[in-house]
Amino acid sequence: MKYILIVIFSFSISFGFGQSTDSLRVKADSVLTADTVKKDTVAVKIDSAAIRAAMLSDSLYKLAQHRFYRLVDTTVYSHNPFFSFKNPEKQISEKKIWRGKEALFYSILLVLIIFALVKNMFPRYLDDIFRIFFRTSMKQRQIREQMMNTPLASLLYNLIFLLAGSLFVTLLFQHYRLGTYFNFWLLLLYGLAGLAIIYAGKFITLKIFGWMLNISDATDIYIFIVFTANKVAGVLILPFIIGLAFTDGILYTALFTVSLIMVGSLFLYRFYLSFVSVHKLIQINIFHFLIYLCAFEIAPLLLINKLLLAFFAESH
């Protein structure tokens, strides 16, 4: 049986290898050939005129392109000076010149430094000045002799008066709009020179009259009182100079008024003190003293005031 199965299996294998291959193969489809017709290279032109006409006829497009603006009656602005469309005004801005207060600040600072140095060098001299001027001490003659023995302190306090007085005069010029075309330093120089000439001339004149009339003691006392009053005024006016230089408005007006009242009161008190002191040495009545004041005190001030106004008017 075993041999029979082997024979059958061998026979079936040989029969399979003896068959030929199938000649009926699937041929390629000849219908699926490449298209030899060329593509149409002519592009279809778009009619832009038609599109433009369609867009213009579109109401939504018109609404999008519409600019909203407010119709204003131009006759409203035709007579308005701020809307001159026909003849516009040409505005040319002027060159701005900065006018600070640096010069005034440094001038005041210099005077304060000088005053502080002199006060430290001669600590009792200022107290003696106030005591003898306001008659708070009974030893006035002794104090006056001590003050005359310190000429350097007297000279320095006279210098403080000249500097402070020239600053105050400069502020007066600026307050009354006099000499606005002059710079600060020139006004200060004019004030300093004016005060120096006035009191130097007064000193020389009184010395000459005292020598001529043989009343040197009376004139020396009068000169001492005049220059003592100047020293007191030079010290008292310093706070007012600082206030007038750097304040404005109501405070400035108040300081300006008080400073003028103080200076005027010092001069009036100086006249009274001079009359009382001189009257003890020579026989002089109040009428003669008033004539002297009008001739040698008030008249020169009025003359100087007139000359200053004429000078500023001519310079302008």
From TrEMBL:
The alphabetical list of record keywords is:
Membrane, Transmembrane, Transmembrane helix
Would I find DNA repair among this entry's keywords?
no
What parts of the sequence cross the membrane? 103-122, 155-176, 182-200, 221-244, 250-269, 289-313
Keyword Membrane listed? yes
What stretch or stretches form a coiled coil here?
none
Superkingdom, taxonomy of origin? Bacteria
Return the InterPro entries for the record.
DUF4271
Pfam families, per database record: DUF4271
Protein name (database record) = DUF4271 domain-containing protein
The source organism is Paraflavisolibacter caeni
Organism classification, top ranks? Bacteria, Pseudomonadati, Bacteroidota, Chitinophagia, Chitinophagales
